[in-house]
Amino acid sequence: MDAVAGWEVYARLALPAFGLDESTPLTLLNISENATFRIDLPSEQSVMRVHRTNYHTREAIESELTWISALRSEGIVRTPAYMTTSDGERIAVGRARAGDERFVCRFAWVVGTEPTEDRLAADFEQLGAITARLHEHSRRWPRPAGFTRFKWDFDTALGEHGHWGRWQDGLGMDAQSMAVLSRCAKKLGERLQLWGKSPDRWGLIHADMRLANLLVDGSNVTVIDFDDCGLSWFMYDLGSSLSFIEHEPYVPELVDAWARGYRTVGQLSAVEEQELRTFIMFRRLLLVAWIGSHSATATARAMGSQYTYDSCRLAEEFLSFNFKSP
Description:
Layout: H1 3-14, E1 26-31, E2 34-40, E3 45-51, H2 58-73, E4 82-83, E5 92-95, E6 101-108, H3 120-140, H4 154-158, H5 175-195, E7 202-205, E8 214-217, E9 220-223, E10 230-233, H6 236-241, H7 251-263, H8 270-293, H9 298-320
Antiparallel strand pairs: 1-2, 2-3, 3-6, 4-6, 5-6, 7-10, 8-9
Helix pairs in contact: 3-7, 5-8, 5-9, 8-9
């Protein structure tokens, strides 16, 4: 059984929970930490998300959906509504005969396309404003009892037991790359230790606001896929927005646009703006780990060893930057 068929088995096993026949047409949209499928019905389309095992607990997924509900009810951000099962549950279970099972969620379909390069700056300015609204909500929203999500700090991202594996196992890693990226990781740890986790700098964030998780429809930008939302530094959200394109020459323009947009809603100090480069590099090294541990995915194959080599250049630039005190 190939990887896609393996995911689809659990998607089809969960369809009856939503009152749908197991033969309902499904189209694969993406495979990453989970797999998403489009459900095609005569009257509507929707999205089914199949979670991988041993990643998020049921409680963690429930917590994600609780935050999404709060964001939607308060009009903070455009994001798809989740759809409940026939029994009113937010999470279904696809259970195979062998006893293996996976959690499955369903979301409403949203019209839009991924941002294109011809309007990236405008999209990033709008994204900055959206991110500021999310951060403002996060700072004031009382998380309910039992709320639990991943932490994205140095140890859980770049440590020996990081959520996405070890950056040292990135594709094409050689002695020279290892040396440069080791020095980079050390400096990242030092910068993040200095930055600290005070409530104005650390809280609940989306943590994966990359281009593939934005849908643009005219002037509307919808944020999708809160699957990696968790506790981290607020400025890390920009790093995630630049995922896989950190090395492109137009990135400084996008950072400027994001900062302009952010300031239309929230405050962004000069010190925070300076430290954005730390969180861009933090995300970049985390993605080196992700590519190494997800080498079978289409994204990892497209990035390949070149992503590691380009990361070394970015690491050298980061190491040479003269930071002012945070």
